[in-house]
Amino acid sequence: MKRNLFLLVLFMLTCFSCDDDGPYEEYLVARPVLMDAITFKAEAIAIAEPVPIVNSGKIYAYKDYIFINDVDLGFHVVDNQNPAAPKSIAFIKLEGNYDISVKDDKLFADSYGDLVIFDISDINNIQLMSRMENAIYNNDVWLANLDFPQADIYDYSKIDHNRDIVVGWEVKREMRPVSEYEAQFRNMEFGDALFNTSSDGVASQPSVGQGGSMARFKIVGEYLYVVDYSNIIIFDISDLEEPKVLEDVQVAWDIETIFNQGEVLFIGGRQGMYIYDIKNPAKPKFISEFRHGTACDPVVVAGNYAYVTLKGGNFCGNTESGLYVVDVSNLQNPELKVIYPMFGPNGLGIKDDLLFVCDGSDGLKVFDKSNTPNLVQVNHFENIEAYDVIPLKNSLLMIGEGTLRQYEYLSGDIRLLSTFDLN
């Protein structure tokens, strides 16, 4: 009798779970952690003395200074007038920050969905100029930061769009309708309303700094291009003190990085590389795309070849890690030439005939690319963490796990010049 009663209750529970929402399953549900916007803006920005780095991110070089992102917290300012002995001089607290770009002493940075502008003409007296709210994206739907959690469903139901700032995430396992998951997956797949919100041109722009291949910011001429998770956001910065937001361009659901060669933008994403013409810089025009398996995907270009690192695992995807060499001599039809296996690559850069690849915990790898697509490895700096790299005119910058390393160029190789621990 008890067994029959148990089966009856189980049957009733099953029926209740098959209501108008359809069947239920267990999913990982992510909800944003919120802060009141007034409180946030009062606490989010400060200019302070140097502090130890917490989690080093991307690097950016401008004049004799290096700016090192402290993921989600701000950026450290390093005086590099003597590359053999760099020195920390300031920390700019800027919550929600991952990227910067500089032109004519005006520094543009992201802070969650806002574009923040600083005057760095006096590096010892950096001044906040303005903050353009939600100029890059509506912060409540921003998914491309490094702390973005892996989940099946993202629940934004409790956000007050006029008041709330997303400052983190909490993830729990819950029973939710299968239909809810499927609907959100379709939105993510096609990028609709839920989330729709030297060789890189530096040599011809001496007043513009230089970022690495992991960058989401890129200044070309009088325009600042920013990639959010699905769009190119375009700013007219001809008036550096009052940038204008232009109409954005939708690219794909999962774009991450931006690089330019002349009047062509190369956008790296988890599904592929996207190529855009910027002959009309205010209106990038789609040319073509190169598709690959799902993985994190920065890209650099020199001449007729694009070099793309694909990193699998974690939230990046299941594609096997590697260095892809793609022939882009015909921009309408990019063609994969060869794949070189990698351990867990991140950023990469080019200086003359040398290609530098940050291969995560497997260190920094140096290749001779003079016979591309046939690459020859000429050096391997092991037992270090390599994340982002910038080839400057006279030296190479590389960051990983809070340590800035600089290398001097040799004939067909490099040699360590200095090591600077920011911890």
From TrEMBL:
- Which InterPro entries does the UniProt record give? LVIVD (IPR013211)
Q: Which Pfam families match?
A: LVIVD (PF08309)
Domain of life, per UniProt, equals: Bacteria
The protein's name in its UniProt record: LVIVD repeat-containing protein
